[in-house]
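Researcher: Before we compare anything, I want clean individual predictions. No alignment, no superposition, just each chain on its own. First chain goes here; please echo the sequence and then give the structure tokens.
Model: Echoing the first chain and its structure:
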Amino acid sequence: MYRPLADEIRPQNLDEVFGQQHILGENGLLRRIIKSGDIPNMIFYGPSGSGKTTVANIIAKETNRQLRRLNATTASLSDIKDIIAELDTFLTPNGILLYLDEIQYFNKKQQQSLLEFIENGKITLIASTTENPYFYIYNAVLSRSTVFEFKELKTDDVLKAVMRAVSIAEERYGKAQAEDGVYRLIAANSGGDVRKAINALELLFKAAERKDGYLQIKMDDAGIVSQKNAMHYDKDGDQHFDAVSALMKSLRGSDTDAALHYLARLLNAGDLPGACRRILCSASEDIGMAYPQAAAIVKACVDSALQLGLPEGRLPLAQAVILLATAPKSNSVVMAIDKAMADVKAGKAGPIPRELQNVHADGAGFERDQGYKYPHNFPGHWVRQQYLPDNLVGAKYYEYGDNKMEQAAKKYWDGIK
């Protein structure tokens, strides 16, 4: 029966696990917990292929509890009830160790169904997720569990796993001759995902031409099978929000090179709309009144990018990113509107002053004097009158930024008002 190479090379003990030294090193906390044999409820959080399932399997071997596995993408509430029904039977005298993969796909009710049993110890839960557990997992489950973060593996760690897989692949398919750098390329392009690297390696062995009794593992072939493995990306997941956040913060921090890097990551993943949205936002949030024309220029660049599509759309977006990163900065716009929004949400929205109301709002025969002063009839096109509601008179939302453009506007109005 065929068994995927990635499954066959799966480590059988902690010493065979590559990476995760911060928790599985010689004195790592998780290693000490596993060796103690007293396994608490745990949540493993990290990217695909970083060893979460492997470590869970190793824990299962070292416990005397019956192991049950569920994948939240396919499991239902009835599956949980079936497991609960086994408790306190001769099949599970010491309780159950439940490995729940992709727990973020369980809804609140499904997660809640486990609470009683993980609290009284009849079920020991080991859950894994690729998403931030503090956003996706019910708080009551989190409070009863210890979260361990599995980090993306470094290229050298992935390479060790690849070389272990090579020896097994040669037993299966035959001895191989590999061009220099092939195996490191596979490891580097995996994005820290061992499973992807091993799957790419297995595909290379299966497709390799045989010459003089050796399978020829070529660099060009390795580049083809691994080119899309270079970056984890899910438009609804943490990687998406991390990338767009990094782009926005790099623009705000005026780091042109970093902003271009994160733009490239978004575009490489095909997320043209996400990149456009962040860039448009930055023009008003982080540059704003320091360079008001930036909003119009960036809008033109975004429109061009959307019309061109990828790959050509990268050019106007890169232009927009460089413009924003090198432009003078001001957050006076976002600070002003957020203050105003806070007052409105707090209920501070009194009646609109009579002089500002629509003059046509009064019924026929009941017209009232409005008293509105038309600013253009006064020197400097300005006249003092009340614009805010009575309960907000004196409120100040906009503060001039300390840049040339806003200070020029401030000087102008200081001379008039």
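Researcher: Okay. Second chain, same rules.
Model: Second chain and its structure:
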Amino acid sequence: MKKKTLTHNLILTISLTLSAAFLLIFLSFHYVIRDYVNQITRDAMQSHFTILDSVNKNQKIPDIPINDNTFVWSQYAIFDQNYQTLFTSEDHNKEGGAIVTYLNQNNRLKASEDKLGILVTLSKKTYLVRTKYYEGAFDDGIIAPSKKNKRKTYLVLAFIDVTMIQRVVNRINLVLVGILFATLIPLLLMLQRTLSGVGQSIDVVKQYIARLWRDQEPSQMKTQEVIFAEFDDLLAESHEMANRIKQAEESQRQFFQNASHELRTPLMSIQGYTEALQEGVIPKEQALPILLSESHKMKRLVDDMIFLSRLDSHQHTNKETVTLATLAKECADYFAPIISQHHLAFFCQIDDDELVVRGDNDRLQRALANIMTNALRYAKSQIVLSYKQGMLTLSNDGPAISKEDLPLLFERFYKG
């Protein structure tokens, strides 16, 4: 599956987000305008139906409040069952007839009975229309009640010319669309420029890292500068990482050089004594202890290399319950005579508690022994091993580890 590029993804996300935001504004504006138009026209059209309803039901005509905010005029017309015009207010005969013909031909008469009305566009004019059917007798612009055998069905059409309002709405729509493009295009151009800078910075980092692996010094590199400051930290971290890897490789190389030298020495000794035994130059009683000692040296060195190989391969460790106090005591018992041989004072303070940890006992002993060996190598006069309240501490009076070496203390093969 082909992965998306950062530039494509960001441009698409921002474009969709901005478009969705403008669509929401557009729909909200239409809802507000529609609600406003309904508000200012509802009462105007309803006044006709209120009067007609009262007359048709032979009821008193209620007082109709005048809305000062209404700046539109509602007209109405009455049609017979064949949609022939019987009455129009203020000589709007042609408009009323055209609207009814349109509604009838387009099967929208039923929809126009909605109390909110519907919008109809005819001859570049827009009307808000509403219809209602009455039964009775037509009498000079009203539908009066009549006897059942003389009743007829009439269609009353109320309509308002909202052309000017619709034009304002259309113009605002155009303005909104213009604002969308006027905002989106510069934003996309700015985004493209920013992403171009990000891409250039990424290329600079890639070239920098590639040249680091070709063993080029930063001072010898001729690269473009990164555009954004955040990539400077990445360059610095890349350089630091390359230095650490090189140091680890150098330490590893030295380790194997030392290991091969250490192996060569006992091998040469074993070879020499073996040849001497074959030729009868030295007695067997003198050669065998030396051969055994040298073989033990080789075994320890091979064991160390096997141990490092297991660590690298992340083989499953044998986790068990280990008592820290017991671990400290075993280390102290083992190193006490060795420390004495070096004419150093050894202070051991170990609390008797039952605090345990889960781990590989052999590896924990080896780790503690390595630290103790290092303390023995650099101690001037004393070594202190203490275990109190679950904390195991080992110290000496030798020189402290330098600040430069502290970050690399646990690096493989690192030697300060």
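Researcher: What stands out in the second chain?
Model: Residues 6-56 form the longest helix (51 residues). Additionally, DSSP finds seven helices and eleven strands in the chain.
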